[in-house]
TrEMBL record:
It holds the Pfam family Methyltransf_11. It comes from the Eukaryota. It comes from Dryoscopus gambensis. InterPro entries: Methyltransf_11, SAM-dependent_MTases_sf. GO terms for molecular function: S-adenosylmethionine-dependent methyltransferase activity. This is MET27 protein. Residues 1-70 form the Methyltransferase type domain. The gene is Mettl27. Gene3D superfamilies: Vaccinia Virus protein VP39.
């Protein structure tokens, strides 16, 4: 799934994907039925000016109970506000028992910085975070 037809064409040219779908995450529903995927990954899209953190319930919708979600975001200065909002939304879903956090791992040299301001340590790289969650199973109602 990608919001760019051009990126989907590049993905198609690799021959690696069985199915490709055009969808702008956070503005329209994912093109999949509820509880369809064992695992959902969002890498390189959860950031300021990209996919809003309000997409999280939609990601959960298409994940099977007991399935996994792997999400990433950047920790560079221009993304810190987004990261804080994302982590608040992640926490709210955990508190509501929609999912359980398995991992939140900071990665120091996540990707090359595009400006010196984005790499305060002077390494030329920005850091990022990998989050792994497991969707909680649907509780069974007792009869009687």
């Amino acid at each position: 799934v990608d919001g760019s037809a051009g990126m989907l064409e590049q993905a198609r040219s690799t021959g690696l994907y069985q199915e490709l779908r055009l969808c702008v995450l956070g503005t329209e529903p994912l093109p999949a039925p509820a509880e369809h995927y064992d695992a959902v990954t969002v890498v390189g899209a959860l950031g300021e000016g990209q996919v809003p953190s309000t997409v999280l319930p939609e990601l959960l919708r298409v994940t099977k109970p007991g399935g996994f979600l792997c999400l990433t975001t950047r920790s560079n200065p221009s993304n810190l506000r987004y990261k804080a909002d994302l982590e608040a939304a992640l926490g709210q879903l955990e508190q509501s028992r929609a999912w359980q956090k398995l991992l939140a791992q900071e990665v120091e040299n996540w990707e090359r910085a595009t400006t010196e301001e984005e790499s305060p340590q002077g390494t030329g790289y920005i850091s990022g975070v990998v989050y792994i969650y497991q969707k909680c199973p649907v509780p069974h109602l007792e009869e009687g």
